[in-house]
């Protein structure tokens, strides 16, 4: 706790010095959440005890306006942990999702130039693009130029994902990467363009990835990502596709060269009917066929900010409770992978501050990973109610029930699985 207050004092001192030295404007923004979770049979075996806990996180962002068109931006997370944990538990017992105190994640400078701006430093990766599907709130060191020309926005960027060029003295061995390599870097290079009109936006991003950080292999591939979002009367529609292709080159792993090819897609529609609304979406992330040694599916996942249900791929709930179905070797975590997901939902706002929503989801895997594995992940029903105590403070309660499919039996069809339910309530503050 002491480090937390020291960090806050340091931020305040930096802000104070900046104000006195250059009359900079300083803006603070952030979020704080607390989640209470009770899950029965989260491992999906039929004899597991329930799991109950609280998890929290404070996120604080600052923007220092040094001059017109010139800003310095920072962000840190504090006390991202389960209630009741301690420094000793986190340090000695590997509570991997719990941070001991403070994590400074981002710092970058933005400066205006004719027709646009540059962003330089550690900020959010450009793989967070288009719709909320496929986005991860991860950090990457980058240089990015963003240009604005009327309704058009264009950009070019380079990201340093990993740096493995450090060589230990006298060893000739890379710090990161395959043994004996002196360059184990992973880099992204890309461009994108967006066009905005009244009620909508469409864009296309093309990114080239050169990843030499893998032991015994090098990945070189392209990711092509078009998307569209538009509102037509009371109906909102959005869609995104990500296509990835390239090659994984054998660099000493003995497996030979294989093609990289994969898809992910998302389409969503929502209609408003007075105080009520209805909607449906389909999401897909291709899986890797273990019987196809000539192809590697490599699109990634549905993203940590894509939170489609309370139980299935609910990123924050999985973060604190652990991987769903971890009793056997076919668990799912908070990031949608190797799956098809269908959902229909409906909601009603009896008053402006209250939103009640019900949803039904069906999920199945794309590629079975074991001989004889079933492809049905399960059917989930969710009911939530969110109430705005203040404009910036929302309290939500929810109940989810998953009829677990035989996918979770993994490689052994004799494994016994059972359904699970989740009771959740949370408090979300934004400022």
In short:
With 431 residues, the protein is mainly beta. Helices cover 8% and strands 55% of the residues. The chain contains three helices and 19 strands.
Between the first and last Cα atoms, what is the distance in angstroms?
22 Å
Approximate strand percentage: over 45%
Q: Count of helical segments?
A: 3
| Poorly predicted tracts of residues | 4-15, 17-21, 168-181
User: Could you report the average pLDDT, rounded to the nearest whole number?
Assistant: 87
What is the helical fraction, as a range of percent? under 10%
What's the total number of strands?
19
**CA radius of gyration:** 23 Å
Outline the biggest β-sheet. 18 strands, antiparallel, barrel
SSE pattern: HEEEHEEEEEEEEEEEHEEEEE
Shape: globular
Which structural class is indicated by helix and strand composition?
mainly beta
Task: Kindly report the oligomeric state of this protein.
Answer: single chain
Tell me what you see in this structure.
It is a single chain. By secondary structure, the chain is mainly β. The protein has helices at 2-22, 87-92, 315-321, and strands spanning 25-40, 51-67, 70-82, 102-113, 116-124, 139-149, 152-162, 186-197, 200-211, 217-232, 235-250, 258-273, 276-285, 295-296, 339-351, 354-365, 376-390, 393-404, 420-430. Strand 6 and strand 7 (152-162) form a beta hairpin.
